[in-house]
Amino acid sequence: MSYLDILEPRDEHNRHLESQVHPPGHVNPKPSGRYHLVVVGAGTAGLVTAAGAAGMGARVALVERGLMGGDCLNVGCVPSKAIIAAARAAAAARRAAEFGVKGAEAVEVDFAAAMERMRRLRAGISRHDSVKRFTELGIDVYLGQASFLDSSTVEVEGRKLEFKRAVIATGARAAAPPIEGLDGIDYLTNETLFSLTELPRSLGVVGAGPIGCEMAQAFARLGSEVRLVEAMPGILGREDPDAAALVAASLKRDGVELLCCGKDLRLAPNGGGSARMTVESESRGYHWSVDRMLVAVGRAPNVEGLGLEAVGVDFNRKGVVVDDRLRTTNPRIFAAGDVCSPYQFTHAADFMARTVIRNALFLGRARASKLVIPWCTYTSPEVAHVGLTAAQAAEKGIAIDTYTQELSGIDRAILEGETEGFVRVHVRKGKDEIVGATVVAPRAGDMIGILVAAMVHKIGLGSIANVIHPYPTQGEAVRKVGDFYNRTRLTPGLKRLLERWMSWSL
Questions:
Q1: Least confidently predicted of 48-62, 251-265, 478-492
Q2: Which whole-number Å values give the CA distances from 332 to 139, 152, 312, 394, in the listed order?
Q3: What is the pLDDT of residue 107?
Q4: Cα–Cα distance between 281 and 15 in angstroms, integer?
Q5: What is the crossing angle of helices 210-222 and 241-253, to 10°?
Q6: In whole angstroms, what is the distance from residue 310 CA to residue 302 CA?
Q7: 381-488 is a CATH 3.30.390.30 domain
């Protein structure tokens, strides 16, 4: 797939996006000497690496064959959250009568306008990732396919770039799993979904991970008839089962027909770009016709064409092989981001890039395993997570105590009609050391931050109870979990001692 496919439709916003992240008139510079760092790939990991290194005085070359900004800007975080925002606005309008607001019952969604808004906002944000901006930072930007010639040279469009160190930050792409009949239909992935200009009357979605759940709910709220198929017994398999169950219930309320344990999925063309879906679940067969299909499962690392074999860089189907310091099997070449990470998130790529800068340029010993990486699925409600789940703790033989505050006990959540959710924190048994947490709430991604900070800085759950939150806020739920822990410290013996003190002090 060409990067030009992402730039459909060719309206003013996508032309503006192209002018920022792959300007047609760009002329690659001529290398004037050896670079401290050559960065291959201009997604989040590559951009952060290049900007950080240049800011510290290094001579840096940045190479991108497609669109600067990578998946996040062009086909990931940015466009998806714009669509989710439109879908949430539609859902809020439909609920308005619950709050005494009349006249909003018949909500009409202008899908073309929502998508145009997304393209406009994406184009505006693109200046942060633009060729112009990075050139102004003193970085030589090369557009084209990079290929390693040896352990000190990369070739790009006939230019030979010599380097002291190099970083592979080429990311990953959508890669559909083997589904019978998939090759015979015109299916969508996250790389083509955001080029739609007309709302599909019906949408089939394969995969109930974060992308599948987010887009299934968003398109249902925007007016599509959505059918979501997942091979596993439930959705969001990496999450706390209680959190996944709340999201599943929310998807169903929004009209998503959810089919888990889906086996033997078969697809066939149905004319006019539509498709027939046949799937079996619990010994029952299902037959659906959908206007469009979204395949939201499967990723493949971008390692082709880089000449990695020539420089002894090992890779496999999961990506480039790195050690804990993000060094590849060639000690002069590092990697960061989706091309080598089990955590395929923008923020993970960002902090892996910071690790690479320390280790590649300054003989650092920073370790990727020390990063505390949260994540968030932007459904309604959102699900944010950091550290271990209860199941993972059990697998590792770590005994834990768990404390949960339901949103139904939080005044602000009650007043806003958003009581489905919770804050759950796992601590090492008998201690207040946080080993994991899950937040399910309308803005869970914003609420998880204090728990991540506590884990990074070794702040115990008991101390979180001393952090004063404004009242009323949903963030109070985090503090109240700390209160639950502190109450466990009031043992029967200590309670008797306090009672004696009170009696004596009268």
A1: 478-492
A2: 20, 8, 11, 39
A3: 85
A4: 45
A5: 20
A6: 16
A7: yes
What is the identity of the amino acid at 263?
K
Confidence of residue 470 (pLDDT cuts 50, 70, 90): very high
The answer to whether the beta carbons of residues 448 and 437 sit under 8 Å apart is yes
Give the bridge partners for 281, in sequence order: 284
Average pLDDT over residues 200-229: 97
Q: Which two tokens stand for residue 488?
A: 């466990």
**Which residue would you say has higher pLDDT here, 505 or 485?**
485
Confidence of residue 1 (pLDDT cuts 50, 70, 90): low
C-alpha distances out from residue 4 to 46, 66, 265, 447, Å: 21, 9, 31, 38
What is the C-alpha to C-alpha distance for residues 379 and 465, in angstroms, rounded to an integer?
Answer: 28
Q: How far lies 82's CA from each of 47, 114, 161, 197, in Å? A: 22, 8, 38, 14
Q: Where in the chain is the domain with CATH 3.50.50.60?
A: 3-174+300-370, 182-297
Average pLDDT in the 196-209 region? 97
Number of neighbours of residue 86 by Cβ within 10 angstroms: 21
Spatial CA neighbour of 308 closest among 326, 332, 324: 332
Structure tokens belonging to residue 497 = 């001692």
Q: For residue range 168-195, what is the model confidence (pLDDT) as tens digits? A: 999 999 998 899 999 999 999 999 999 9
Domain with CATH 3.30.390.30 in the chain: 381-488
| pLDDT at 494 > cutoff 70 | no
Which amino acid is present at 425?
A: V
According to CATH, the superfamily of the domain at 182-297 is FAD/NAD(P)-binding domain (3.50.50.60)
Grouping H, G, I as helix, E, B as strand and the rest as coil, residue 45 is helix
**Contact at 8 Å (CB) between 355 and 366?**
yes
**144 or 106: which leads in pLDDT:** 144
Burial 366-391 (b: 16+ CB within 10 A, else e): bebeebebbbbbbbbbbbbbbbbbbe
pLDDT at residue 499 is higher than 80? no
CATH number of the 3-174+300-370 domain = 3.50.50.60
Token pair in block for residue 164: 């002291």
